[in-house]
Each structure stands twice: as structure tokens, then as C-alpha cells.
Design a protein that fits this description.
By secondary structure, the protein is mainly alpha-helical. The protein has helices at 3-41, 52-59, 64-91, 105-115, 124-134, 140-175, 184-192. Among the domains are: 73-102; 104-198. α6 crosses α7 (184-192). This is DUF3043 family protein.
Length: 212
């Protein structure tokens, strides 16, 4: 090999070594930069800082527990309101809130007729209280009180019997004898034996105002 060719070969090898060194240096610098960026992202809280959109999305998430409590509170309020409406409706005789026993025009007629008259049975509770007091009085008064209470009960039963007979005729005339709803006698007697302020539904007519 001539001296000129040796010189050219040496220069080519030196140039190749120089390029390889530069490439390795660039790769090392790039790796160092990436490592620095990764380190910077994890400095502080140990996780990348969220972007503005991520922060807004996190803040916009609904609070499930709070919504559930609000919904339950609203449901309880509605249920209480419904119960109150039902109670008032039953007291006023609204057909929508009455039990099956109290529904219908015949049952309303029976209630109105009973409420329009003085019933001996409705005074039974006050009379029993009086007799209870009299039983503490020694002597003849105890015997008299027992006779009085049993006589009063007999009169109340007799009054309820005549009430049922009268209602049978009135219901037959108004609704037809073959359409009279069964059980009206017992229904009328139970209402007649109740103290007027305790009746349910509440009386809708005054005494003396017979239903038409």
C-alpha cells in the first residue's frame, strides 16, 4: 500500500470514530433529557399534575351520598303529605280514601241517617262512667247502678233494632228492595253506639236533618 492510500485510510477511520462518538453522545443526552422530564413530572405529590379539563371534570362529579339523602327526604315528605290527605279525606267522607266497608251511596245514606238522630247507644259510654263512679258508693247505690246500666243497655239495643227496621224500608224505597246492600243493620248499630265526636268518617249532617 502506498503512503497516500494509507493516509486516506487513516483519515476515513478517524472520521468514522468521530461520528460514532457524536452519535453516542447525542443518544446519552436524549436519554438524560427524557429522564429529567420524567423526574420533573413526579416531583412534589408523586404523580403528574392534572390538566385544567381533568380538574374541572373531577369537580363536576355528582355527590351521590348527598343526592340520595335529598331524595329520601323528599320521599318521606311526600309520603307524610299523602297520609295527611288520606286522613283528612277519610274524616270528610271522601270516597277515594274510604275503606271498602264505608264506600258507596247506601253506606253514606246510613251514616247520614244515624248522624241525623239522637241514638240511645251513643250515650252508653258516658252512662258507664257514671255507673263506675256509683259503684264506689257503698250500700244500695251499687245495686241501683247495676240495674240502671243494664236497663240502659237494653234500651240501646232496642233502639238499634228499630233503627235497622226503619233503614230497611228507607233503603228499599230509595235504592230498590232487591239492591239493598247487606250488612246495613250492623253497620248502622255500630255507628249508633259510637260517641258522636269519635265517629269515622265524621258526621256530615246535623241532628234533625234527615237525608233525602
Amino acid at each position: 500500500m502506498t503512503p497516500e492510500r494509507r493516509a486516506d485510510t487513516g483519515r476515513a477511520q478517524a472520521h468514522q470514530i468521530e461520528r460514532t462518538g457524536v452519535s453516542k453522545k447525542d443518544a446519552a443526552d436524549a436519554a438524560g433529557t427524557n429522564e429529567q422530564d420524567t423526574t420533573d413530572q413526579h416531583v412534589g405529590k408523586g404523580h403528574p399534575t392534572p390538566s385544567r379539563k381533568q380538574a374541572q371534570a373531577a369537580n363536576a362529579r355528582p355527590i351521590v351520598g348527598s343526592k340520595d339523602k335529598t331524595l329520601q327526604k323528599e320521599q318521606r315528605r311526600q309520603q307524610a303529605s299523602s297520609r295527611e290527605r288520606a286522613r283528612i279525606g277519610m274524616m270528610e267522607g271522601d270516597e277515594r280514601y274510604l275503606t271498602a266497608r264505608d264506600r258507596g251511596p247506601q253506606r253514606r245514606y246510613v251514616r247520614d241517617y244515624v248522624d241525623s238522630r239522637w241514638n240511645i247507644g251513643e250515650m252508653l259510654i258516658p252512662m258507664m262512667l257514671v255507673v263506675l263512679v256509683m259503684t264506689f258508693v257503698p250500700g244500695v247505690m251499687q245495686v241501683v247502678s247495676l240495674i240502671v246500666i243494664w236497663a240502659f243497655v237494653a234500651l240501646a239495643v232496642l233502639d238499634a233494632f228499630f233503627l235497622g227496621a226503619k233503614l230497611k224500608r228507607l233503603l228499599g224505597e230509595k235504592f230498590g228492595e232487591d239492591r239493598v246492600q247487606p250488612g246495613f243493620r250492623w253497620y248502622a248499630a255500630m255507628r249508633a253506639f259510637q260517641f258522636r265526636p269519635l265517629r269515622m268518617p265524621k258526621p256530615q249532617v246535623k241532628r234533625g236533618n234527615r237525608p233525602s
